[in-house]
Amino acid sequence: MPYRNSIIEVINKLDTDLNKGLTKEECLKRLKKFGKNELNKKKKETLFELLIDQIKDPMVIILIIGGFISLFLKEYIDASIIFVVIILNSIIGVIQEYKAEKAIDALEKLSEPKAFVIREGFLQEIDSCDLVIGDIVVLEAGRYIPADIRLFQSNTLKVEESTLTGESEPVDKDANEIYEQEIGIADQKNMVFMSTYVTYGKALGVVVRTGMDSEVGKIAKMLDETTEDLTPLQKRLAHLSKLLGMIAVVICGAMFVVAIVQGRNIFDMLLLAISLAVAAIPEGLPAVVTIVLALGVQVMSKHHAIIRKLHAVETLGSVNVVCSDKTGTLTQNKMHVVSTYANGKLQQINDDLLRGYCLCNDACISQDEVLGEPTEKALLSFCEEKGFHKKMLDTEYVRVNEIAFDSNRKKMTTIHQRKNEYISYTKGAIEKIIYDCTSMLIDGKVVRMSAYDRNQILEIAKQVSADAQRVLALAKKKLKTPYEDAAESKLCFVGFVGLMDPVRPQAKEAIELCHKAGIHVAMITGDHPLTAFSIGQRLGIATQKNEVITGQQLDELSDEELNRIVCRSSIFARVTPEHKVRIVKAFKANDCVVAMSGDGVNDAPSLKQADIGIAMGFSGTDVCKQASDMILADDNFSTIVDAVKEGRGIYANIQKAILYLLSCNLGEIMTLFLAILCMPNVVSPLSAIQILWVNLITDSFPALALGVDPMEHTIMEQKPREPKESLFSHGGYSFTILNGMFIGTITLVAFRYGLDTSTLKAQTMAFMVLSMSQLFHALNLRSRINSIFKEGILKNKWLILTIVCSILLQISVCELPIFHVLLKTVSLNSNEWLIVLGLSISVIGINEASKWFAQSK
């Protein structure tokens, strides 16, 4: 038990090196021996199991029974075609389910957590699943703990263990603790466990257990039993499919009863009713939607927006407020020092200023590259350029204690020992530092700081902030011991620097696009309000200073007061993570759909509170990423806007696919039901086999092609969609019903024309018009507002390919003798083909006319 052993005993037992870690070869050996560092996942259904699921559908079982009845009545051709259609439909269904599952698996891989390890003496970032026993792991605030780890070095480490122990408060950890007796995991202070995360401090540790051998692995069976939640849209569609299925069954049942009363052949009508019910029920709707969502998400991932939860895609189309971090999202995250203040003057430096920024700094240099947080990298680079080298200073001034940076305190302190003396350096926001100072350093001498001096320094800092620079102050203090409680009081002010982070070139254009699309952009930052306003003004986020709210003002406002003014505010400066949660709640209280970006461990609550939580891919902590719905791989604001645009496009495409399927299915029902009611003494316009064939070629493939339709050019000129908006809003009901009725009517027109020649000719013409009109109708769905000629009739190559191939197949069905026997068709002459094509294409003409009338009003 590692927690009862000293660190030397653990290291010897695991045969590893505290300083250099494991070699690459040893890691590969251990990975092969112990396996991947991951929990067993719920077993996926095999292709055979997916196929059985398709066949188990009640309507398919009824159709199978119909096939066997056909065999019993020696209708061998009909029976064969029924079984072929069942097999083909099942295969298509399996392929759809399999592709959807694979696409979702690919999404999970995109957001797998990482771990920082020391291997062969170098710090490396690897996938957590590649960790092995004996790896040396670096832990810091915001990082998920990737395995069970025995600590050997820790600094004010706190770990959130509620997922494992139920303890709601972060737990203090201490690498130096050793226990003689056996204790529970909640009391093991020298251990940290897989699936928990660091909330404060830093540590180094060695991996002692991985995967299913970890503490969380022992309860993995509970995790296996969890089921995947459907998105709200998928739930609504599943309910819609059942409802439509019941309606279709009732209509088909009524049609069967009417046919019996009319004295038609009982078996033929039973088979026809069953076939129509199978064709009319949109059982593939949820699968089509899942595929469209998953494929859309994969496209978004190529544009640096990694969607972690499918429901986020639906919500993106409704976003009307984007709350964005400034640093790295609206700016380039390329901090550099542009101003300095020391010895009471601007653009002055002294040794204490450079030494302090070099020592009170967690960035480091590895292989000639500066590694660390952007602000600290900029400070260290500046010091190195001026001849102050961190490696040399760290040896002379040994860090013996520290008070880590905290987003509420907005400062950090490091304590160093030089010979027998202790000195602390504190850096942070100038208003947090200067009021803790009682003296100041002028030309190497410590002098008393007066109220006048303090106000003068703050005034100069304000001027620097107004130039969009981030001001970071430095103070120092001599200490008697490294553990003084008052290490951050009665400080000596050394100076400050102004750092500039250039705005991203695409950000201003993206913000303009947001405003055009009816989306309010709010910038949230920890910077000084003047710095924030200057940058916001450059980006077009704010034009007036009264659009800025500070953290101090937020503290003074009640929730009701904040709710009233939040929608008029565009910049929130000097805010804490707690403020972010309040801001999101205030926007939501105004019925806004909020997207919120963040990167720190304390941002997780606000990301969860938002409708869409967005984590930064580069600078974001593991905790932040796990709490998010979406990860920005490039930390770029324009990527958020692109994701909103894609979200709108994906939802629109899903709506197109749904309206297409339902209007086509309604067309099939109208054709047969109206024929039986209005033509009681005439044969059915279509046979059962022809209905199943139409369902096969006009359902899934055109719907999927519409699912990847290029988005309309006006999509970002439209207002955000209401979250509870119906799929049939903006005329969707009338569009579906009228088109279904029109398709049914023109099919009956073709049937009636063919009756003058023969019954087979009439059925063939009806068969052709029903299938081809549905294929041409798919083009109408490209836009219900704009003409398809304006949108570009050839833009969706997959749809054109589907239509062309399906029409060629239908022509073959009509003209090849083999199909005459199988599908009971006959050849058509040129006049008949012109009538078929004319009637089929008329579905485009009637829709184009309706669009023209709608736009001319």
Structure description:
- The protein is an alpha+beta fold and 857 residues long.
- 50% of the residues lie in helices and 18% in strands.
- The chain is built from 32 helices and 26 strands.
- The strands form four sheets. Strands 10, 11, 14, 15, 16, 17, 18, 19 and 20 form a nine-stranded mixed β-sheet that branches. Strands 8-26-25-24-9-21-23-22 form an eight-stranded mixed β-sheet, with helices on both faces. Strands 1, 2, 3, 4, 5, 6 and 7 form a seven-stranded antiparallel β-sheet that branches.
- Strand 15 and strand 16 form a beta hairpin.
- Helix 30 packs across helix 31 (817-823).
- The longest helix is centred in the C-terminal third of the chain and has 42 residues, at 637-678.
- It is elongated, with a radius of gyration of 34 Å.
- The protein starts with 6 loop residues before the first helix and ends with a helix.
- Residues 221-228 have low confidence and may be disordered.
